[in-house]
Amino acid sequence: MYTFSSRLKTIALVLMVLGILGIGYSFFTAPKTVEDVEKILAADSHHGGGHADAAHHEPAAHDAHAATTEETHAPAAEAAHDTAHAHAVAATETAHGEHDTVHTEAAVAAHDDHGTAEAAHADAHAAHGEEAHDAHAEHQHHLEHVLGQLQNKPWSAVYVAALFFMLISLGALAFYAIQNAAQAGWSPVLFRVMEGVSSYLIPGAIIVFLILVAGTMDLHKIFIWMDKDVVAEDHLIQAKSGYLNKVFFLIRAAIFMGGWILYRQYARKNSLAQDDATDNSFYKKNFKASAGFLVFFIVTESIMSWDWIMSVDPHWYSTLFGWYVFASFFVSGITVIAMITLYLKSLGHLEYVNTSHIHDLAKFMFGISVFWTYLWFSQFMLIWYADIPEEIVYFKMRIENYNLPFFGMVAMNFVFPVLILINTDFKRLSWIVVMAGIVILCGHYIDFFNMIMPATVGDQWFIGAGEIGAILFFLGLFIFVVFTALTKAPLLAKRNPLIEESKHFHY
Amino acid sequence: MSSHYEAPIRKPLIIGDKNYHDVTVDVAAPVEGRANKQWWIAFSIALAAFLWGVACVSYTVGTGIGTWGSNKTIGWAWDITNFVWWVGIGHAGTLISAVLLLFRQKWRMAINRSAEAMTIFSVIQAAMFPVFHMGRPWLAYWVMPIPNQFGSLWVNFNSPLLWDVFAISTYLSVSLVFWWTGLLPDFAMLRDRAITPFTKKVYSILSFGWSGRAKDWQRFEEVSLVLAGLATPLVLSVHTIVSFDFATSVIPGWHTTILPPYFVAGAIFSGFAMVNTLLIIMRKLSNLEAYITIQHIELMNIIIMITGSIVGIAYITELFVAWYSGVEYEQYAFLNRATGPYWWSYALMMTCNVISPQVMWFKKIRTSIYVSFVISIVVNIGMWFERFVIIVTSLHRDYLPSSWTMFQPTFVDAGFFIGTIGFFFVLFLLYSRSFPVIAQAEVKSIMKTSSETYKKLREQGGHDNHSHSENNHH
């Protein structure tokens, strides 16, 4: 039996405490009023131009106000001038402030009624003229917009980290189900590790669910479509309200999380029962449950990714999105399995795990990293190539405002692991696998960061106390829950019919 | 490579009382024997269909593309439908030989040779469509970036149709090399058994002087693994690039990001169905039931079921996102698929691809040879219609209602397609009589772990492995 070392427990608790301090600090220091925002922006104004200037550009300002810093003014304004479509585009990304909805309104109306770019353009301008003939009001709107973003920031930081760690656990659970359903002969000695990692699903899912509930109670603005005022002005979101509404959203979340947890608990129970069984009946039950879970999983995973991630940009859509999200957390889940296996092995707990098992896990880390990149590229390239305004805003926003995280994650999630893990000997070296694993995990955190933040905090992002605090808190909680679960049962699944194959596994 | 111990719950992959020599004899028999009447009948029909296809293609090239049913709105129809269909079928071969090798699936060994043959023959069929759907196929060499006398006039590398050229030609080359490498030990076996000087000569040339030394085997294994590692991304990228032909466009119904993985899943789906169709017949006619067992068919059915479900999820995703997007063109494209003039092809595609593989959840059904055979054909019909639906229904009604039209194929369209089916079977029938259709060297390598004979021997031996490990445990 494994015992949770007091040192590791202390580390986990320290991480949680530090995390709470960081999260608390970021909530505490978030601006409360527009005056606070003005001070922050004034402090930032050395970025060139300065914000106050922009607000007083008489004719141009009403288009440019969609962007919040001088750097993004030009492209956003350009887009806004191009066609009515592009106008909608500029609004889509920044639609979180009420003042932006007029863009959408105008553009959507133009799209429906006139069709020609010129007419729509004039229309949009007219609509604007009424709304913002006063530059001061314009500036005020802008400040409120930034205030909304900055108030969203600590919430988003917590949400990204909470989602990321919960999905790691779900990824490991999916991997476990696949191993069961495929009757894999190599992996049963790792089953208890996988069950341990998946134990975080319960607290993780509850926390994510609470954050979603907080959204429906208007405590944060991560999901802008939950904002009644925004929806009232936004025809596109109104058209989606049959799907994007608070009640249905929470029901879906509850069903998905409930289903996953149910399988996890059931499989774990059978797995433990199989240890003392006299026949293979529990193994067979798990085989069937795993196949059933995988069907449930592929459906719920897709919908989950539309609900919890894609809907933060409620105007944007991509059919590939669900599978892309899956690849991201699946590889993270496998990586965590590998790292925890190596840790337990280094303490001498996993007697039968040898370098061949590690090699296989590292191959999965390598292969799924390539698969993630394939999906990332497919989604990015197809949208870049066709350059349809409704879709391209998503990447335009990210490349302009999140350039380093956006392309940096491709290096971390693809270039580095592929180069280091292609070598067979390297895949058997613990330190290489751990190093690659750390880079992969950081890279996929950034992937989730890139998916959520541009929609919730826009260009006001930075990785500060709130973000790091949230990572530390959930990392501590994850370690605490997972390693507690690992102490609950022997680390070798004893009577699994494939365990002997797994013990003798050599590649 | 694999463990010495095999769990008792695994069923034997070679059934009957077979030894190494039996494998050799069984695999060599169809090559060494003479073709029977049925073979000649099948061959004649295939050849006639092929020749009819040649006539239709000659007519097209001589007279013009206008002999086809395509029109100004629907510039792509049966030509590209058939192209994607054949490429898709070809994917299962690589899947079986490469992906199943990477996943150490021993059951692939009895089917990989024929699956790869199927890949190569169907990619050859596919490759004809990009050439003969050209208005001026004699200028096809212009797609290659060759220095020339037009001031070095170059190709534009931005077109997925050009990527297709590279994808398909690379895919065919790599598949061919992968297949041929695996054939070396088997050709050597036929060479060593040959009685007539002619066959001796032929198989000596084909087997490249393979002598089966330890060093050769070691390198052989390594090459197979590397090629499998290369072929896996290749197989994904090839069909992805084929999907880019549509997905990079701005046509509603075509421009959707899910197409790359969804086309790949569809390719595996239809490819496995075709393997099942061919092998169910082959195991019977070539007396290979001991090697291509019910378990093999069941496992292929499971893969068909899984990929069919993935395809089903993709269909639903497309439908949902079309609604969710709020783009009326996108919404109409799917409304048109379901309720427009081609509703029947959409209904056929949905029934064949989404519903039919779901019956495989029942063990009784997926272990029934007859049902498997029927479903495998149903799936291939469904997958043909999937491509037809994607291509034609998206084109015949898109942005401008004044450009809406219908598509009616001509006999030339059909003739070309029939011709490729004929040509495929000409090649496959010739293959089945001259090539070792089962990789006997590979099958022999699993004899001691997975044959019925050895499994029984081990059981009688009193659970040697088990007691051994029990001792280890304490």
Automatic annotation (TrEMBL), chain B:
Coiled coil: none annotated. The chain crosses the membrane at residues 39-63, 83-103, 115-135, 161-183, 223-242, 262-281, 302-323, 343-362, 369-391, 411-431. The keyword Repeat does not apply. Keywords: Cell membrane, Membrane, Transmembrane, Transmembrane helix. It is a multi-pass membrane protein. Pfam families: NrfD (PF03916). Its main location: membrane. It is found in: Cell membrane. Belongs to the NrfD family. PANTHER family: POLYSULPHIDE REDUCTASE NRFD, PTHR43044. This is NrfD/PsrC family molybdoenzyme membrane anchor subunit. It comes from Flavobacterium suzhouense. The lineage of its organism: Bacteria, Pseudomonadati, Bacteroidota, Flavobacteriia, Flavobacteriales.
